[in-house]
Amino acid sequence: NDEKLQVAIDGPASAGKSTVAKLVAAKFSYVYCDTGAMYRSTTLKALRNGYKLDDEASILKMLANTEITFKPGEKQQKVFVDGEEVTNDIRQENVTNNVSTVASLSGVRKELVNRQQQIAAAGGIVMDGRDIGTTVLPDAKVKIFLIASVDERAERRFKDNAEKGIHVPLEKLKQEIEERDYKDSHRKVSPLTKADDAKEIDTTSMSIEDVVNAISNEIVKKQSV
Ligand code: CDP
Ligand code: CDP
Which residue, 3, 56, 66, 81, has most beta carbons within 10 Å? Predict the structure, then answer.
């Protein structure tokens, strides 16, 4: 039985969601959708336009005329805004430290959730974010909530940065992660929270391969039901 399922992966910053989601999607030949990249792309364009990030009216008008697309890439998926590649730009510090503000705007969430549901409609999807299991794909057959200690997550980000030649002190990364988690968990509209029917996996001392295998087992289990 190789029924194409919807796989929802949520969790706090740097828990490993996008890394494992991409690998799981490849393993099952599913489509992978990084919803965080959509919030980041919206934030990048708003910053470039010089909008205040609480100016929801301007950001919504902008978003209505903004195309966000993905293309498969070697190490990570490539992200395009209005045809321009922004894969690296959306990971920069000023986007990272402002994205939670934009993601708390209810109109922005409504529009992006709509787009995400359209992407998922084809079936056979792995989608990662904060509200996938609770809001975007509430009927997903496989729901995973990935967590890891904040020290481990800061170290993972530190290593990612080092590979890119970026140096932000570990303590600062830890503080930024904690602040973003707090904002994401306390916003009014679809905050980060584990869906009741999600399986929580603590990845603190797991390898990427271990996590991919654990999620794959969940998929295979549900395929045979
Ligand atoms: O990869 P990282 O954990 O840094 O974050 P991300 O998945 O790229 O998401 C960036 C930000 O977008 C999050 O901190 C949330 O504020 C927002 N987001 C969201 O609100 N809902 C989602 N489904 C995905 C991301
Ligand atoms: O998407 P999210 O912000 O949750 O995490 P990510 O962007 O996938 O980053 C996680 C980082 O931790 C990557 O550099 C992974 O190589 C590393 N990592 C992991 O994802 N899972 C583990 N079990 C161990 C390390």
Answer: 81
Q: What ipTM was estimated for this complex?
A: 0.97
Interval 8-34: pLDDT, tens: 999 999 999 999 999 999 999 999 999
Ligand 2 centroid to residue 31 C-alpha, Å: 19
Ligand 2, atom nearest to 15 Cα: 4
Mean pLDDT for the stretch of residues 102-123: 96
Edge-first strand listing for the sheet containing 6-10: 31-34, 125-129, 6-10, 142-147, 199-202
How far is the centre of ligand 2, averaged over its atoms, from the C-alpha of 126 (Å)? 16
Which residue positions form the known binding site? 11-19
CA distance 56 to 175: 27
The pLDDT confidence band at residue 1, using thresholds 50, 70 and 90, is: low
What is the Å distance from ligand 2's center to 80 Cα? 22
> For residue 186, with 0-12 CB atoms within 10 Å meaning exposed, 13-18 middle and 19 or more buried, which class applies?
exposed
Task: Give the chain's radius of gyration (CA, Å).
Answer: 17
